[in-house]
Description:
Elements: H1 26-38, E1 43-45, E2 55-58, E3 70-80, E4 84-89, E5 99-104, E6 107-112, E7 118-123, H2 125-138, H3 149-160
Amino acid sequence: xxxxxxxxxxxxxxxxxxxxxxxxxxxxxxxxxxxxxxxxxxxxxxxxxxxxxxxxxxxxxxxxxxxxxxxxxxxxxxxxxxxxxxxxxxxxxxxxxxxxxxxxxxxxxxxxxxxxxxxxxxxxxxxxxxxxxxxxxxxxxxxxxxxxxxxxxxxxxxxxx
Length: 161
Ligand code: ZN
């Protein structure tokens, strides 16, 4: 297992639509979890380490001392709540920038685990925002893409100062 370099925005790999994942993904997933913990972060998508395949990892509770590593292969959103929540989101590929993003408060996903078994899960709170953020990455979308041009310019100019 190893810690991989995390690509920084605007690396072009972060704007690509990822292909369906297939084959043996255990090494990639293990390396991505190592990379996420080392960063440190709570979610990481394959394109952030330059692999354009539909896979992400998440562990929303390890920072609270209760590790729960999860690997999502070919995740799909199957239902979202009408209720929406706005929370600040950071991204390991865009260090130093937090953006307020409005998303459905709850989301149900279907995905495959590393053993090839289909899973479904319902996510709320931080985890709901996190899985939607990571699925955005698989479609080539980053937090900044949710902002209007003016807000985005302002944020980027504050960071570059
Ligand atoms: Zn991100």
